[in-house]
Amino acid sequence: MNRPLFILKFIAGFLLALLISTSSAMAESAKTLGDVERQIQETSDQLKALDEEIARSKSMKDSLVKSVQEAQSKVGERDQRLKGLDQDIERFNQRLNTLDSRLADAQAGVEARKAHMAEVLRNSQSIGQQTALKIVLQNDDPAEADRLAVYTEYVLAAQNRAIEEQAAALKRVQSAQSAALKDRNWLNYIKKKASKQRETHLSTVNATKKDLGQVEADLSSKTRTVAQLKADQERLQALMEELKALQSTQSGYFAAGKGRYPPPVKGRITARFGDIKSVGKLRWSGLFIAAKIGTPVRAVADGEVVYNQSLQGFGNLVIIDHGDNYTSLYGGNREVIVQKGAWVESGATIATVGDSGGQSDSGVHFQIRHNAQVEDPEIWLKPDSGLLRASK
Hints:
By secondary structure, the chain is α+β, with helices and mostly antiparallel strands. The chain is built from three helices and eleven strands; from the N terminus they run αααβββββββββββ. The protein has helices spanning 3-138, 142-246, 253-256, and strands at 268-271, 287-290, 296-298, 303-307, 310-311, 315-323, 326-336, 343-344, 349-353, 363-370, 373-375. Strands 1, 2, 3, 4, 5, 6, 7, 8, 9, 10 and 11 form an eleven-stranded antiparallel β-sheet that branches. Helix 1 (3-138) packs antiparallel against helix 2. The protein is rod-shaped, with a radius of gyration of 52 Å.
């Protein structure tokens, strides 16, 4: 066979194979970019829904704030009412103290009048007896005795009137005291009722404040979620741009090591590619390798760090671009050591094991993607990697 012709045919065949491979890779890249664009659209829809929820929460917050203000105003009114009632009750207490003093004085006056009258009666009887005997013995004029008797009657009548007046005054004081006691009792009832109303309004204030706190917490959470979604959307957009930029790069380095890569961490596989997750019908898109917190996480191959931040669902995430649209992902880290844009060698420590990915156990969520599509990581790792493998 003509050697130059053979070389030309070989080169033509190689170029044809390369063209077919490149076309296939570009088609897969286009599909991957479409997936990323759909994720961006889904994130936009979530943001729109959250914006509507935030608007409703703000309206509810305004309503609750108004309710708190109204209830606090009513509590203030009850406080003023109770303050006025306390002042009224204090005035009645002072009045009752005065009446008690007057009542004691009046009672003492009546008793004194009664004692004085008894003394007058005893004296008048003694005088009368002595005068009658003296008139009989000394033959005095009986008219004088009559005048003395009339005088005694006048004195007794005056004393009776004084006692009656004192008793009437005592009765008036007792009546005033009874009325004051009755009014004070009524004021205490009104105060008790106003206190209950105040406690009711205060309970309303506290309950409304609690609801307001829950709304504010929910609003704060939704606001943080919006910020996180916006940040994730920006990251997805950046990743899409990076995927577009990487479409033309081809080296064959990463694919050549298939089946010979070391695991990112020594541990036990607790979830394998395609396993159903515990929540819903979602499936694992990679491996979860359980390991102790703080264990070094190592890059499986050479590449550039294109992501080193937190991402919802992945925790602290590191993504390494290995060229030819191959990337490896390491999620759930405790601490990320490498910087974005850094070039790392195979086996280099890029992070430490953590539990930031939302899993109950610490470990690494490890993925391998080609054109952003997930592939089974186990077929890329060497068989004697030392991992404790879960059974199918």
